[in-house]
Amino acid sequence: MAVEAVIFDFGGVFTTSPVENFAAFERARGLPERFIGEVIKKNHHANAWARFERAEIDLDAFDRLFAEETRAAGFEIRGKTLVGLMSLTFRPEMIAALERVKAAGFRTGCITNNLPDLGAGEMLAASEKREQLEAIHANFDHVIESSKAGVRKPEPRVYEMMCEALAVAPPACAYLDDLGINLKPAREMGMRTIKVPFGDVRPAIRALEEVLGLSLLD
Predict the structure, then answer these.
(1) Quick one: fold of 18-83?
(2) Which residues have a Cβ under 8 Å from the Cβ of 88 and sit 6 or more positions away?
(3) Out of 35, 88, 154, 207, which could bridge 15 as a Cys pair, Cβ 3.0 to 4.6 Å?
(4) What residue ranges do the domains of the chain occupy?
(5) Is 161 left (phi over 0), alpha (psi -120 to 50) or beta?
(6) At the top level of CATH, which class does the domain 5-17+88-212 belong to?
């Protein structure tokens, strides 16, 4: 089936990844590599991080519960400390690629796991970055935010919701994300999945070029 729609993650695709910030935090404190990620992945549908992304708990509850989870794993990190590591910067190559995908007539969507009252605008902060964020969102036909929808990746329902919104079958979609755990359910539904590497989005853009038969890099 020919691809009719391209669905994107946001953080780690159009911006740097929070995972990169987590790694820097871990190195500075002598923590095991991927310590934060392992805590977030444990019991990943029901832990504090998952509940916060679905807006089931507020920041104060997340601060306390994440501290409990990390302390049980060997080193306490407050939830508010983790939220403070969410600062992001843009990746212009992927932003340009989205513009070309949209201009070529493909339907476009964004599925983002985000935090209540801390969407990409707050993480990017500066006014000029907010303007860039609005320009990016203008190229999406539909956006699903976990904190508003009450469902998050990798729950299969969120991918189904996007397909319904775009009126497209999963096999007619390409999906990009920087986390393999989020790619797996999309792939199982029949989507063509592309993993976006940390630090350099160009390999993922080249892979998308092959899927779409479209030039996306200068």
Answers:
(1) DNA polymerase; domain 1 (1.10.150)
(2) 11, 15, 16, 18, 120, 123, 124
(3) 88
(4) 5-17+88-212, 18-83
(5) alpha
(6) alpha beta
